[in-house]
Design brief:
Layout: H1 17-26, H2 33-43, H3 57-62, E1 72-78, E2 84-89, E3 95-102, E4 107-110, E5 114-116, H4 125-128, E6 131-134, H5 137-151, E7 157-160, H6 170-182, E8 191-195, H7 201-206, E9 213-217, H8 223-229, H9 238-252, E10 256-262, H10 270-279, E11 286-291, H11 305-317, E12 321-324
Parallel strand pairs: 4-7, 7-8, 8-9, 9-10, 10-11, 11-12
Antiparallel strand pairs: 1-2, 2-3, 3-4, 5-6
Helix pairs in contact: 1-2, 5-6, 10-11
Bound molecules: S-adenosyl-L-homocysteine.
């Protein structure tokens, strides 16, 4: 199968059962082989046609140059809480990070959508490293299959909170969500897409009518502070983001949640919590507080648990539903904002 746009062969990973069936028939195999190929790719997690032993050996040999679309593990680390971080090497040599976060009931994968990120948020390691390229659909799906295989457990939840800004790679993210949902079996309601906000893209996402959760990274209750932390915010003020969130809720019938990274002495005072409650009034929404995870080249400080609690309490008193994100994998540099995609051997 080739891409209609570039005429280059596309990897098998990412194709639907129907598309796989068409492809397999083109190679001279009977129709029912499409379902077998689908199972081996998405359920058994095969890395090559060679290992698909239900297929005739001669065919496997003949087709052995076919690109499946799986990455290689370049490096992995495990934190004491069981969180695992993987650095994956893609076909062009680019490295991306993906994180598997286990609890007794869930296995959540934190997926990257870009190599690097152009949004340049001042407190985020990925943002400090610059931008290389968007990930293809199969490169997003592969991360989930890899975590599943490596952690020997089915992935139940997925957050698009790894490297990159998902709404800058909307088509591939939506394409990957469809495959992860329909072909791998992860419920749409267990999938969260996190964005710092890109003009017009929240509206575009709404048009797909997905049942995923949209999380918007707010991080400040006023425009000036937000722009100092997030340079891209100058093109998309908070009021416009919140208007687009209202429209998103109307179109999809889903609530939007807000993320707020707490930076001591910057955005974490009770006064700022009150301001935040004010701008979120009427949203029936949920605020997820993320205590800042230190990165080496940013000058911010993590607030004390007491400061976090006071901020959360102040929001609750203003009738805003709030949760504090438990930090996972911090000593493996696998926590929010610590992903950079390079392997630093001096650590
Ligand atoms: N580009 C998307 C996904 C990024 S990561 C977005 O901005 O939403 C998910 C969350 O982690 C975002 O809210 C991001 O701002 C936050 N984050 C980034 N760096 C962080 C850090 N060092 N400590 C805590 N949270 C961080």
């Amino acid at each position: 199968m080739t891409s209609a746009i570039t005429d280059k062969p596309v990897p098998l990973l990412g194709l639907s059962q129907e598309e796989l069936t068409t492809w397999v028939e083109q190679t001279g195999q009977p129709r029912y082989r499409g379902k077998q190929l689908h199972d081996w790719l998405y359920q058994k997690g095969a890395h090559s046609l060679e290992e698909m032993t239900v297929f005739p050996k001669a065919w496997r040999q003949e087709m052995s140059g076919t690109e499946i679309g799986r990455s290689q593990i370049y490096h992995k680390t495990e934190a004491s809480d069981g969180t695992m971080k993987f650095l994956l090497r893609l076909a062009d040599g680019a490295i991306v990070e993906t994180v598997g976060i286990p609890t007794s009931k869930r296995l959540t994968v934190c997926v990257s959508t870009q190599v690097g990120c152009p949004m340049a948020c001042d407190f985020c390691a990925t943002g400090k490293g610059g931008f290389e390229r968007n990930l293809a659909k199969h490169e997003i799906i592969d991360q989930v299959l890899t975590v599943q295989e490596q952690m020997n457990r089915r992935v139940s939840h997925l957050v698009f909170m790894g490297m990159g800004e998902p709404l800058l790679n909307l088509e591939n993210v939506v394409g990957a969500v469809r495959v992860l949902n329909q072909d791998i079996g992860i419920g749409q309601r267990n999938i969260t897409i996190s964005t710092v906000g890109v003009p017009n893209r929240i509206k575009q996402l709404a048009q797909y009518h997905l049942q995923v959760t949209l999380a918007v990274s707010l991080h400040a209750p006023d425009r000036e502070l937000r722009e100092s932390l997030i340079p891209s915010a100058r093109k998309y003020p908070i009021t416009a983001i919140l208007d687009d969130c209202r429209e998103y809720i109307n179109i999809t019938g889903r609530r939007v949640s807000f993320e707020y990274t707490l930076l001591a002495g910057v955005n974490a005072s009770p006064q700022q919590a009150k301001q935040l409650a004010q701008i979120l009034r009427g949203f029936q929404s949920h605020v997820n507080l993320i205590p800042y995870n230190p990165i080496s080249d940013a000058d911010y400080k993590r607030p004390t648990p007491q400061m976090v609690e006071l901020f959360a309490q102040t929001l609750k008193e203003q009738n805003i539903a709030v949760s504090v994100r438990r930090t996972r994998g911090i000593e493996a540099d696998a926590a929010c904002g610590q992903l950079r995609g390079t392997h630093n051997t001096t650590k």
